[in-house]
Amino acid sequence: MNDTASDDQDKYISIDKAVRLLHVRFERITWFIATGLLASKVYPRDKSRKLVSLQDVQSLRNSPHLLAPWIIYALVDPRNNAVRYVGRAHEPQIRLRGHIRSERAANPVKYRWLRELEKNGLLPRVEVLEGVYGSIEDADVRERIWIQHFKNVGAELTNIQFRD
Fold first, then answer.
1. Which domain holds residue 14?
2. Sheet strands (E) in the chain
3. 97 and 146 co-located in one domain
4. Can you tell me the distance from the alpha carbon of 160 to that of 87, in angstroms, rounded to the nearest whole number?
């Protein structure tokens, strides 16, 4: 298969090529598609494959915080836009699934909040706060700084280590 396909408005490329151009994992590309940051369409010759917009890939290259190995993110309550959790991950969308599947005992406050959202047919929104190019220790420092920031502005965080 050719890595590109033409469209009247835009040129589309394979997901594999987008991964190479952006230096990210496949999972990050799927997250960009799911959040609308990256337009996609079905490859005409193979309906099981998707192509992504080259124009959007080029735009993402101007957003280095979204391409960093570590992402500091907030889980936001869609009912009131309140930040309820701050974390760090390589792939925020995979980490969100982990939060949703988490056991009650691990963090009962976060568990209750997520179940309440689920009962209303809602999911928390993932907002990227910062991209970190560095080690896990660097990412941990930035995560703690963001947690402290949101505590200082009165956010009711569900992070275990920072609840009052």
1. 4-62
2. 4-6, 11-14, 40-43, 46-53, 70-77, 82-89, 125-132
3. yes
4. 11
Q: Are residues 55 and 72 in the same domain?
A: no
Please list the pLDDT of the chain residue by residue as tens digits (164 residues).
455 555 445 799 999 999 999 999 999 999 999 889 999 999 888 888 999 999 999 999 999 999 999 999 999 999 999 999 999 999 988 999 999 888 777 889 999 999 999 999 999 999 999 999 999 999 999 999 999 999 999 999 999 875 44
Task: Quote the CA–CA distance of 128 and 92 in Å, as a whole number.
Answer: 8
48's tokens:
């099981």
Enumerate long-range contacts of 74-80, CB under 8 Å, 24 or more apart.
Answer: 74/126, 74/127, 74/129, 74/146, 74/150, 75/99, 75/124, 75/125, 75/126, 76/124, 76/125, 76/126, 76/127, 77/113, 77/117, 77/124, 78/117, 78/122, 78/123, 78/124, 78/125, 79/117, 79/120, 79/122
First to last CA, the chain: 56
| CATH number of residue 130's parent domain | 3.40.1440
Instruction: State how far Cα 132 lies from the chain centre.
Output: 14
How many independent structural domains does the chain possess? 2
Residue type, 92: P
